[in-house]
Amino acid sequence: MMIRWHGHACFEISGSKTVVIDPHDGKSIGIPTPNVRGDIVLVTHEHFDHNATRIVKGSPEIIRSFVGKRKINGIEVLGIEEHHDEVGGAKRGMVSVYRFSMDGLDFTHMGDIGHMPEEHTIDRLKGTDILFVPVGDVFTVGAADAWNIAENISPRVIVPMHYRIGGLSLSIKPVNGFLENLPPERVTKIGNSVDFEKEDLPEETEIWVFSL
């Protein structure tokens, strides 16, 4: 299994299939354009920094803002509708939170969630192995709510996303606020990608911080 970060909220997850989530075109937000090929593309919402499906090579099946449960190209996907803001979607609309299973592992991508979800959503996400959660505030939850979400879901690995990095033209906050006060042994700096097996995942929750 391999996870590669393409910046912002875009991840490439490869096993028996390759799933690409929230592709951007790079130039619109000031960072490199992803060089990625996929079997499935999941779009959490139709904002320009999350829906550039044209950059994904191959002939992927593209799923946009899906809510419900279905098998897509052999992968079980659950889509849950949530708010992009703290006022029921009135400011920025809705997003789809995706949970999917591949090769015996469960992944959850929280999209641009902008509030602490209700307990019924949390209950549907518990048991996930790897959780991708936005931490950059402004357009999504910030560090405190991101931690609250992560602690309630209790995954084996937390991957922060949607935070400020060099070159990014969006005015969001860096990852530091999410990581402060954490003991160093809980944080693993990954680089751009990581290869792993299910057996490699920690028993106690770790935070994997990717870089471009």
Task: Give an overview in words.
The structure is a single chain. This protein is mainly beta and 212 residues long. The chain has one domain: Ribonuclease Z/Hydroxyacylglutathione hydrolase-like (Metallo-beta-lactamase, Chain A, 4-Layer Sandwich). Helices cover 10% and strands 35% of the residues. It contains 3 helices and 16 strands. The protein has helices spanning 119-125, 143-153, 176-179; strands spanning 2-5, 11-14, 18-21, 36-37, 40-43, 56-57, 61-64, 68-72, 75-83, 94-102, 105-109, 130-134, 157-161, 187-191, 193-195, 206-210. It has an 8-stranded mixed sheet with strand order 8-9-10-11-12-13-16-14, covered by helices on one side. The chain has a 6-stranded mixed sheet with strand order 7-5-3-2-1-15, with no helix packed on it. A hairpin with a 2-residue loop joins β10 (94-102) and β11. The protein is globular and about 45 Å long.
Quick overview:
The chain is mainly β and 212 residues long. 10% of the residues lie in helices and 35% in strands. It has a single domain (2-210), classed as Ribonuclease Z/Hydroxyacylglutathione hydrolase-like (Metallo-beta-lactamase, Chain A, 4-Layer Sandwich), CATH 3.60.15.
